[in-house]
Specification:
Elements lengths: L1 H21 L9 H28 L4 H26 L4 H29 L11 H27 L5 H4 L4
Helix pairs in contact: 2-3, 2-4, 2-5, 3-4, 4-5
Length: about 170
């Protein structure tokens, strides 16, 4: 008898979890937690691209503009790639997965890049810092943190309208 009660409880919990996931990206149902998770996902791809671009450009002695352009291009590349990987794992064809990644991440990455690069641009001496300088790493870390804080409400707004990262959730199993 206890075993049957346990199964019923487990089935109820699984059903409840499925209902919550089904509404995860529904229009009007965006929580701050969902927005933060979407932003963290975006931040991961952006940070990989930003750091790699800044390291490559700085190591090669490039000027600020080409280094920044490389960092932004790589931030979009890695941001889209992380989403693309997840959607492709769901068995979606590449063309559809690519469209989903563009729809899910473009606004989020653009806002994150605008804020991140804006902070670095206006931070005194940050644009001239070298890889061996604490200023290089501190300004980059703080700029990404500020970008996270600013981008989270943007993601909450888009998810609440069934757009942005909400588009990806229909492909999660």
């Amino acid at each position: 008898m206890q075993h049957e009660a346990h199964e019923t409880h487990t089935e109820h919990a699984l059903h409840h979890a499925h209902e919550e996931h089904a509404h995860h990206g529904a229009a009007g149902c965006a929580s701050w937690s969902m927005a933060a998770q979407a932003t963290l996902h975006c931040l991961t791809g952006c940070a990989i691209g930003e750091v790699l671009g800044m390291v490559i450009g700085t190591a090669l002695g490039w000027g600020n503009l080409p280094t920044t352009v490389l960092a932004i291009v790589l931030a979009f590349f890695f941001g889209y790639s992380l989403t693309l990987r997840g959607v492709l794992k769901a068995g979606v064809d590449f063309r559809t997965a690519f469209r989903v990644a563009l729809a899910a991440d473009t606004l989020s990455i653009a806002v994150m890049e605008l804020i991140d690069n804006g902070v670095i641009l206006f931070w005194p001496n940050a644009m001239d810092a070298q890889l061996s300088d604490l200023l290089f790493w501190a300004s980059l870390a703080i700029s990404l943190a500020v970008a996270f804080v600013v981008t989270t409400p943007v993601n909450k707004w888009t998810i609440g309208r069934g757009k942005g990262h909400a588009v990806v959730h229909q492909y999660h199993h």
